[in-house]
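User: quick one, sequence for these tokens?
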């Protein structure tokens, strides 16, 4: 299990970061998640800039997208044991990953408010350095992989994405996106339109057996 190498001066911030809106509609981690997302994004971008000095903006962007994704955040949260600490209304099915990812970002937001940007960046760098170094080649996200494959095998055609009606509660909607390519259609869901479109592309890659 990983360790969060930070001691809070104001422990109530950590408590708030681990409280999901399903457990407390008024006092929850959504605002801290908003801050933590920005702190994580900038920290990881800076780390990648320094770790891979010869890579292009596009290559760095692909690495960044993977490292700040819901799956990566949820994985780190699980390694830290946050799955046993988060207070939630319900954490079943596809919501588990999103709840853990949101809590992880909220913890970073809490550290930022408690100790400043440098403190938060140090924690993030400690947790993410090995993850960033694990890939020797910048990975391509599912949407990029799908686009390149379809263009190559369909005479330059592009996948077509359609945003469907979201489901779930208004304060925590689940977005739905469909993608059509090469005579097939796949649907993905996510906590944002971007996440849903990536999930749809990933589902299409599986249909096409890529």
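Assistant:
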């Amino acid at each position: 299990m990983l360790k969060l190498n930070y001691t809070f001066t104001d422990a109530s911030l950590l408590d708030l970061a681990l409280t999901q809106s399903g457990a407390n509609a008024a006092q929850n981690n959504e605002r801290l998640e908003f801050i933590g997302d920005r702190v994580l994004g900038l920290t990881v971008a800076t780390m990648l800039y320094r770790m891979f000095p010869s890579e292009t903006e596009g290559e760095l962007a692909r690495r960044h997208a993977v490292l700040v994704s819901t799956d990566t955040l949820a994985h780190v949260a699980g390694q830290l044991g946050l799955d046993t600490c988060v207070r939630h209304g319900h954490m079943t099915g596809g919501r588990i990953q999103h709840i853990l990812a949101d809590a992880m970002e909220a913890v970073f937001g809490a550290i930022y408010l408690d100790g400043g940007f440098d403190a938060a960046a140090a924690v993030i760098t400690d947790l993410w350095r090995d993850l960033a170094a694990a890939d020797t080649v910048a990975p391509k996200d599912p949407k990029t992989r799908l686009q390149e494959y379809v263009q190559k095998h369909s005479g330059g055609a592009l996948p077509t994405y359609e945003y469907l009606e979201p489901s779930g509660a208004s304060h925590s909607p689940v977005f739905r996106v469909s993608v059509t390519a090469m005579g097939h259609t796949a649907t993905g869901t996510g906590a944002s339109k971007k996440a849903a479109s990536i999930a749809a592309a990933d589902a299409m890659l599986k249909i096409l057996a890529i």
